[in-house]
């Protein structure tokens, strides 16, 4: 805007009008016009400086807001990290308890197996001569134990596989719903 004003002010003066010729050649009208031009120029420069100050202030406010957003993000991230550390410590504590339980189980399972095996009717202790006799039907123990152990393992695997399959079906169903909504069916 100041540039347009400068072009206007630097324009050659128009020849004096007929009514201005009678001022006695003093040129008071041209002095007044130059003074008004200078006042207009000063006011425009003042407005330009005010607009420039507002622009700089808005840039500073934008940067300040950006810094505040970054600060908030960092606070949230730090809070999440602290919670993650708390969860990690709780999981470590649970893990050490589970190790203790697994160790106790591992120590007692062989003894349980031996006690169960000798508690069956496959081994007979004769008191009169102090001898141990094994039944000729001892094969039944393995014939029933191995299939039942395999069945439990298979059912456990199937259960966990079904859970994963169910989650997959749920995701597939939700994706299909979104596809239908997206395609307006």
List the topology elements:
Blueprint: H1 2-9, H2 28-119, E1 123-126, E2 131-134, H3 139-182
Antiparallel strand pairs: 1-2
Helix pairs in contact: 1-2
Describe this structure in words.
With 185 residues, the chain is mainly α. The protein has helices at 2-9, 28-119, 139-182, and strands at residues 123-126, 131-134. The chain has a two-stranded antiparallel ribbon with strand order 1-2. Strand 1 (123-126) and strand 2 (131-134) form a beta hairpin. The longest helix has 92 residues, at 28-119. The protein is rod-shaped, with a radius of gyration of 48 Å. The mean pLDDT is 78.
Number of helices: 3
> What is the H-and-E element order?
HHEEH
Strand order of the largest sheet: 1-2
Give helix % range. over 70%
% residues in beta strands: under 5%
Oligomer: single chain
Number of strands: 2
- Low-pLDDT stretches are none
Sketch the major β-sheet. 2 strands, antiparallel
Which class best fits the helix and strand makeup? Answer: mainly alpha
Distance between the termini: 57 Å
Mean residue pLDDT? 78
| Rg from alpha-carbon coordinates | 48 Å
| Overall form | rod-shaped
